[in-house]
Amino acid sequence: MIKDTYSRGLILGLAALMVTSSFAQAAGDITAGRKVMVQCQACHGKDGLSRQPYTPNIAGQKYEYLLHALMAYKAGERKSQMMSAVTKNLSQEDIANAAAYYAAIKITVEAPQ
Predict the structure, then answer these.
(1) Helix 63-75 with 92-104: angle, nearest 10 deg
(2) What CATH number did the domain enclosing 97 receive?
(3) Whole-model pTM?
(4) Which domain range does residue 48 map to?
(5) How far apart are CA 100 and CA 32, in angstroms?
(6) What are the CA-CA distances from residue 42 to residues 28, 45, 47, 80 (Å)?
(7) What is the pLDDT of residues 65-79, one digit of tens each?
């Protein structure tokens, strides 16, 4: 019971921190993201649809996911030689802007029949 209460409190505290942090509140600028994404388009494509077999599509991905993933690459918490090299010189604002750009791309999904 105590462990459950502690875990719940920890999760709620972390969620509150994320929601109230100035970085989480800054949704990014799509127009500025177009300038940042020039570094991304060689692998992920200008439209966020990769032409390479081992590079993921990022078009229409959730903003929060992209933000978290890019920050994790920058901090070295997520490992990729290419992504670490690309993100090391990006500011938090650049990352937020690139995430906003790719998140704003509209995609259509069709389930197989």
Answers:
(1) 140
(2) 1.10.760.10
(3) 0.73
(4) 28-104
(5) 9
(6) 22, 6, 11, 16
(7) 999 999 999 999 999
